[in-house]
């Protein structure tokens, strides 16, 4: 009861409060008016939450929607400038826990800058991020219906593939070095949504480098690549050198454009539908 009274008092004063992905209480005396976003997917989700006009700084590759390309840059994935962030006088920084240096986050906190740590690992987390961003920016009237619509579409997809025959999947991020994603990455949730099983779900690191021998040992039914941009990466067809692999022998080498599946945004539903269609093609071929 006391907790409810505190929340009510905070709302009356215009305060906003949410728990971030590391269970930290993030609070502001009023909705954020100047936000720095330290990952492209955070930028995209802020726009989806109705808070695009509150963004004052972004990182490299923040290119969706088009308006994001005109925001001030504060660095890239591996080198974010603390000085550039401070110069923008943000009242909120939204960082990606899996992709932002913990030392940078601590420096921001030491300077008294409020930081929200975003770290979506499951498909439902996209809706959570939208809702949190809407609360922090005071745009819940936009973020809430979009989050609900996203979850409705997600539930519809889930019911379509819940009882399908499992398909083993190698999701290939890159070719040199050969790289995939483990079971803690959101793309594994996409694979499982479609009735698939990530053959490297037990890998220790989030984006492990793997050997050709390990792929042969696990012998996936299908290889799905992302690469860069929307074009089919030429290196996907390098697998044809090894027809003894089940995926190669049956010509199950497919592509899902990276931006549709590797960004933790509303667009991941488009990538999920493409993933599900590829796994359905594998099942259909097995029935012939």
| Number of DSSP strand runs | 13
What is the N-to-C order of secondary-structure elements (H for helix, E for strand)? HEEEHEEHEHEHHEEEHEHEHEHH
Number of domain modules: 2
Major sheet: order of its strands? 5-4-3-6-7
| Overall 3D form | globular
- CATH homologous superfamily heading of the largest domain: Nitrogenase molybdenum iron protein domain
Mean pLDDT: 92
- Name the beta content range: 15-25%
Q: Which spans have pLDDT < 50 for at least 5 consecutive residues?
A: 1-12
Contiguous helical run count:
11
Q: Biggest sheet, open or closed, and with what strands and sense?
A: 5 strands, parallel
Estimate the helix proportion, in percent.
25-40%
| Level-2 CATH architecture of the largest domain | 3-Layer(aba) Sandwich
Give an overview in words.
The protein is α/β, with parallel strands linked by helices. The N terminus is likely disordered. It folds into 2 domains: 148 residues, 3-Layer(aba) Sandwich (Rossmann fold); 124 residues, Nitrogenase molybdenum iron protein domain (Rossmann fold), CATH 3.40.50. Helices cover 40% and strands 16% of the residues.
Structure at a glance:
Residues 34-283 form the Fe/B12 periplasmic-binding domain. The protein is of the alpha/beta class and 288 residues long.
